[in-house]
Automatic annotation (TrEMBL):
Gene3D superfamilies: Glycosidases. PANTHER family: GLYCOSYL HYDROLASE FAMILY 25, LYSOZYME. Belongs to the glycosyl hydrolase 25 family. Pfam families: Glyco_hydro_25. Signal peptide: none annotated. This is Glycoside hydrolase family 25 protein. One of its GO terms (molecular function) is hydrolase activity. It comes from the Bacteria. The keyword Hydrolase applies. Keywords: Hydrolase. It comes from Kurthia gibsonii.
Length: 196
């Protein structure tokens, strides 16, 4: 099996042809809140499309209210689909940007589904899993980061998830520098993530 990688503007030197030989799935960042578009998203999406690398997308959540979450989700969906429709959409919940993160995340997901998103995931910071108390039943899959300090040893998440981001210091052919690497961790197979 090849790699599952997620990347953004911070990975600005990507050889997509080389990456396609070792990557089974890419997850690309579209935005950091509504106001910060990832400057390399469209380039990454086009590169992945050209070399048949299946990809989904994520948005780092910064919403401050339910209304703001709905707007963020709408911006995310529109930006994500500018190249082609991605395989799935993920709301990345890592910071407490409003008092009720559960309500904001639910609004974000509801808006994505109303716009036509078929597969939606939640990325939840490991250390905030209990604090945020998100309604994970609203999502189709859960993605959790948990790293060891050495960047190599795999620390299993303490909570159930379908994808485990196990290092932010990965190395992979086709991407210069460090990159986040992920592994399947639940019952869902790769085929589920890459099915259109």
């Amino acid at each position: 099996m090849g790699y599952i990688v997620d990347f953004s503007k911070w990975q600005n030197r990507v050889n997509y042809e080389e990456l396609s030989k070792v990557c089974d799935l890419a997850i690309l960042r579209v935005q950091d809140g509504s106001y910060v578009k990832d400057g390399l998203y469209e380039q990454h999406a086009k590169g992945c499309s050209q070399f048949a690398i299946p990809y989904g997308v994520y948005a780092f959540a910064r919403f401050t209210s339910v209304k703001d979450a709905e707007k963020e989700a709408q911006d995310f969906y529109e930006r994500a689909n500018r190249v082609k429709q991605p395989l799935f959409y993920v709301v990345d919940v890592e910071v407490e940007s409003m008092s009720d993160m559960r309500a904001g995340t639910n609004a974000f997901i509801r808006t994505l589904r109303n716009l036509g998103a078929k597969k939606v995931g939640i990325y939840i910071a490991h250390h905030l899993y209990h604090t945020f108390c998100l309604d994970l039943t609203k999502a189709d899959f859960i993605w959790i980061p948990r790293y060891h300090l050495d960047g190599k040893t795999i620390l299993k998440p303490k909570f159930p998830c379908d994808l485990h981001q196990y290092t932010e210091r990965g190395r992979i052919k086709g991407i210069e520098g460090y990159v986040d690497l992920n592994r399947l961790n639940g019952k869902k197979k790769l085929a589920w993530f890459i099915a259109e």
